[in-house]
Input
Amino acid sequence: MDAHAILDDPDFRKPGSDRGLLGIFRHYHLLTLLLKKGITTRYHGSALGWVWSYIRPAAQFLMYYIVVGILMGGRGDITLFPIYLFSGIVAVNLFSETLRNTTSAITDNKALVKKIYLPRALFPLAALGVGLIHFLPQAVLLFVVALIFGWSFGWVPLLAFIAGVLLILIFSLGLGLFFGSINVAYRDARNFVDLILMFATWASPVLYTWELVQTHAPAWLYHIYMVNPMTAAVELFHTAFWVPIAPADARPSHLLIQTLIAAAIALLTLLIGQITFRKLEGSFAQHL
Output
């Protein structure tokens, strides 16, 4: 066939071109393979394996509960503080896991990136999926603990949980695409992400309530704080697991509006991350 005819063929695609996240599911088989690779290698050589997915959040919860709830004598003002604390920790852990995975997705797969062409967005998306799968044991553990404390099924808690998970995934993927693409050339990006994750627990209502921020912070700062995607996500997790067994007035009065604004911010972050990723992905192999 003539070369010009090939170039004019509508099915012909220039090597290395793709549609970013919009076209990634055309390569679902490759995505599945990367997911399996990430899952099987996560605890490779570990005697306990997946048990660590239960041990880590449980140990983290005990540390905060003993130090803040018992030794410091605080949080007596929060009804059922263990559920409040654990639901917030699980939400932040999902954010930490997915952001850390997506940020390092390209550098962790540098052998593949340098040798063969794959749509580059496959790597952070697969890393996001791995983080979500490893989040499930924590969610199950939280669900069991909430049941012990009297939690019962309801559509509002279920929808709040799903919305919280989606909000975290969108926000962390956007940040991961942005910092992950920069991290290929400048490893400082990974250190900046570590700083974000170091403050994540304290910048969300995990160890304290949103009312504390409302009382002590200026009004403008409080409103910014409440539309932070992670603040909204943590409050959605509280709505899903803590509010059903806590006082009815425990959730923020404008949570729905705050969640919608936080979702818009998360989507904007995803858009910026995607644009940055597509702009820099052509030079990934050279920098690696």
